[in-house]
């Protein structure tokens, strides 16, 4: 029987094992060694933090069950970590009520690598980046942009909220925490250069970019024009395999029309069932899967193969996609 204290002790040991590499002029990098068989497995979840409501606790339970099944290495969070307006400080009880007290399964006591979403920017964005939260729960790692190097897989986390111009011009009554971003254009330009340089240096078999906002989506928010224009060309030029995001509260798999990139949305960690689909999608044939409900996604990689699986709130498989480097990104 696992107690809260024993799980936290386990997590502290895991945190000690995670290596951090910091180099001047580069995105901060965290090292996650592959398993002895050479594989890497993780779960991706987004748009979740609601103190267990809107089926968040049920999704968390199923994540724990699947995490044990796939021998989970870590968790990826695609942002909008705490609703409705992020955290108000480092000591906001919402952190433990929506994170520590919810994701209690033994398999989920691994590092959680998180980016900020637009709702997180509506609160104290700096609070989620603070080391104080890691003292409360050592699983938590949240930075604006960074890299997780898992040997055969390299994951590039990108802070996408500052790209979206309407948050500056049409805030719709919301206040965004731009304290660390005095100039949108300078910040975005610098981040684009950092991402491009990091992708060029990468020798990983699989390259994944993670951001909060979708590049391609038939959900409520649709495509994010700024990302399509400013990030997608960099990804295409540097051999990115997958883009993972949240923002739309659904599960999606969309193939790019003129590159091997797959767009994977996992933003269904709690409130979902919005009931609307963007009718302006350019090519319905590129949509491989869409589910307007709660759930999450798992990913497993070897040197030759990748398997992506989407699950619903009951842990049932909704969609599976498998590809092989040997088959030049063919899917079945």
Automatic annotation (TrEMBL):
Q: Give the organism the record lists.
A: Eutrema salsugineum
| Upper taxonomic lineage | Eukaryota, Viridiplantae, Streptophyta, Embryophyta, Tracheophyta
Specify the protein name: Purple acid phosphatase
Cofactor binding, note field: Binds 2 iron ions per subunit.
Please give the Pfam families that the UniProt record associates with this protein.
Metallophos (PF00149)
Principal location listed in the UniProt entry: secreted
What is the reaction catalyzed?
Answer: a phosphate monoester + H2O = an alcohol + phosphate
- Residues binding Fe cation 2 are 80, 118, 212, 247
Q: Which CDD domains match?
A: MPP_ACP5
